[in-house]
Design a protein that fits this description.
- It is a single chain.
- The protein has helices at about 1-5, 30-60, 65-90, 100-135, 140, 145-170, 190, 200-235, 240-245, 250-265, 275-300, 300-320; strands at about 20, 100, 180.
- With about 325 residues, it is mainly alpha-helical.
- The chain has a three-stranded mixed sheet.
- Helix 3 packs antiparallel against helix 4, helix 4 runs antiparallel to helix 6 (about 145-170) and helix 8 runs antiparallel to helix 9 (about 240-245).
- It is globular and about 65 Å long.
Length: about 325
């Protein structure tokens, strides 16, 4: 920040607090059960996403462009829940409500990076499905390993830069009065509203980023499936169309699980009680990473077959060792 200020030719001083206080989820009876439930969700998420990543790594048949995106989604889900849930439990279950200023911004960075990457990863998977169904003869040419690696890397770079800009603008805010964040984590919207100097740039970010990170990806996904449906109606029989669309069920389930709770919560945000809003948002953050691997294992034939093969192979190896 000193370099930035000197570049402007100004000696600007900002008032940064020593810590923030996470003040959400207070005054709720038997809230400890909710924290135990979050811990259970976290364990299922860790096991599920680790299994999906392990299966993709161990089975050479799954090393296709599509499963590069699936692997990345599982990694982001695992990373995101690991960044969020243990810290939330530490804050509320063990009473560590005071978070140092720099730690809070770091916490914010990792949470928003993973949440954004989940959205963008669903876009990558929807593009994969669209090309596979509409241009099946060109799929091997259009969606290559190199293309998918480049796409995933680009999404990571874009997301990291975007979140760093948001965090950088927060460092240019002064906090003179309250340092209580009425949320379950270091929430960008809650933090910039506590500032006592001009927070208009952070306000712009708060309005712009949901459009870029949620609305535009959702629009792309919906348009891609409308295009898929339109193409199937034109060129395929009913049976062929249903067979092709069946390959999209897993991805559509992930889209519904990710976007519907978020859109519902943000739409009704002003009409629901603050603690109810915070619980809804926390569930929206931790539930998709838990359900995504379960859905992919149940809905994707390749992963189910691969998992069965790996389990049979392990069973045979145990029998050989015994004898």
């Amino acid at each position: 920040m000193e370099l930035f200020n000197s570049a402007l030719g100004k000696n600007i001083t900002f008032v940064h607090p020593a810590f923030f206080i996470i003040g959400g989820l207070t005054g709720i009876p038997s809230i400890t059960f909710y924290y135990v439930f979050l811990f259970f969700v976290y364990i299922v998420s860790v096991v599920g996403n680790t299994v999906v990543m392990a299966v993709i790594c161990l089975d050479h048949n799954l090393r296709t462009p599509k499963y590069i995106a699936v692997f990345n989604l599982a990694f982001v889900d695992l990373f995101g829940n690991t960044a969020l849930v243990p810290k939330v439990l530490d804050i509320f279950l063990f009473g560590h409500y005071y978070i140092p200023y720099n730690n809070c911004l770091t916490f914010l960075f990792f949470c928003y990076t993973c949440l954004s990457l989940q959205s963008f990863n669903l876009v990558a998977l929807s593009y994969d499905r669209m090309v596979a169904i509409i241009f099946p003869l060109h799929y091997q040419v259009k969606v290559t390993h190199r293309f998918m690696f480049s796409l995933i890397a680009s999404l990571w770079v874009f997301t990291i830069i975007a979140v760093l800009i948001a965090v950088g603008l927060l460092t240019r805010l002064s906090f003179c009065k309250s340092v209580v964040i009425n949320s379950y984590f270091c929430d960008h919207g809650q933090i910039y509203r506590l500032a006592c100097n001009d927070h208009f740039p952070s306000y712009v970010i708060a309005c712009l980023y949901p459009v870029i990170i949620f609305w535009l990806p959702l629009a792309f996904i919906l348009l891609s499936y409308l295009y898929i449906g339109y193409t199937l109606v034109k060129v395929a029989t009913l049976q062929e169309g249903l067979k092709a669309f069946k390959t999209c069920i897993g991805h559509l389930s992930l889209v519904a699980i990710y976007f519907i709770p978020l859109l519902t919560t943000f739409t009704l945000m002003e009409k629901i009680q603050p603690n109810a809003r915070i619980i809804n948002l926390s569930l929206t953050s931790v539930f998709p990473p838990m359900l995504n691997p379960i859905i992919y294992v149940l809905q994707t034939q390749e992963i189910k077959e691969s998992l069965k093969k790996l389990l049979k192979r392990r069973g045979k190896s145990k029998i050989i060792i015994k004898y």
